[in-house]
Amino acid sequence: MRVAVLSDIHGNLPALEAVLAEVETCGADAIVLNGDIATGPMPAETLDRLAALGDRAVWVRGNGEREVADAFDGTLAPGLPDVVRRTAEYCATRLERRHRALLADLPLSVTLEVTGLGAVRFCHATARDDAEFILVDSPLDRYREAFAGTDEPTVVLGHTHMPFDRLADRRRFVNPGSVGMPYGAGPGAHWALLGPDVVLRRTAYDLEAAARTFRAEAADCPGLAEFIAENLLTVHSDAEALAAFSGT
C-alpha cells in the first residue's frame, strides 16, 4: 500500500493537475486529500477533478471544507476574519449541490495501513481540531496534547502549508506542505509519497500559465492578485511563515 498525500490544494487546479500527473507515475494505491481542498480560485473545478478519482481518493475535512459548507448552507459563523469569510462566500457561490454533497460528513481524521510504516493517522490540523496550528518547532507538550488518544507511530498533518518530517515523543510527524499555496519551501506544488518510507515531493508547473488561467477563470475571487503574487509566483520563507503562525 503506497499513499500520495495532497494537502492544502486551495482551489489551485493547475497545481493539482501537475501533481496528479506525477502521482500516476509513482504507483500510489490511494490519494489522501488532507483538507483545505477547494478554498481558492477554482473551487468547483477542483472538486470535480478530485471526484473523478473515485474510490482512490480518501477525503479528510479541513477548516476550509467546514467553512465553505457553512457558507453554502447560509450558516457561516459571523465572527470569522474578513478574508476567511469572503473566500468561503466566494467559493460557495461557485458550487452546485453536487459539490456540497462531496463536503458532507467528512471525517476529522482517517487511519490507513501503509507499507513499511504501519498504521498512519491523517488529519488536516490535529486529531482534535481542524484549525489548530502545529509547527515544526512546536513544543513536545503541544504534540502530546493535540494527538492525545491516538497511538499511530506516524501522523500526517497539514494546515500550515510548511513541509517537515520530525520526531516528537517517539512518533513521526509529517507535513507534506501545500499543493496550492506553499510556504517555507520553493515554488511549485508540494506533496508526499508514503510507503515504504516518507518522501516529501515537489512538482514543478507553469506558474505564469496558472496565473493567466486564474485571471481568466476566477477574476472575481477575493484577493486574487495577492494569491498570485504571494502564493504562486513567489513563496513566503520559512522564517516569515513561522513568525506569522507564532505571532512573533
Automatic annotation (TrEMBL):
Output the Gene Ontology terms for molecular function.
Answer: phosphatase activity
Coiled-coil stretches: none
In this chain the Calcineurin-like phosphoesterase domain maps to 1-187
One GO cellular component term noted in the UniProt record for this chain: cytoplasm
Q: Which Pfam families match?
A: Metallophos_2 (PF12850)
InterPro entries hit by this protein: Ap4A_hydrolase, Calcineurin-like_PHP_lpxH, Metallo-depent_PP-like, Pesterase_MJ0912
Q: Give the highest taxon in the source lineage.
A: Bacteria
Give the similarity note.
Belongs to the metallophosphoesterase superfamily. YfcE family.
PANTHER family noted in UniProt: BLL5683 PROTEIN (PTHR42850:SF2), METALLOPHOSPHOESTERASE (PTHR42850)
Name the record gives this protein: Phosphoesterase
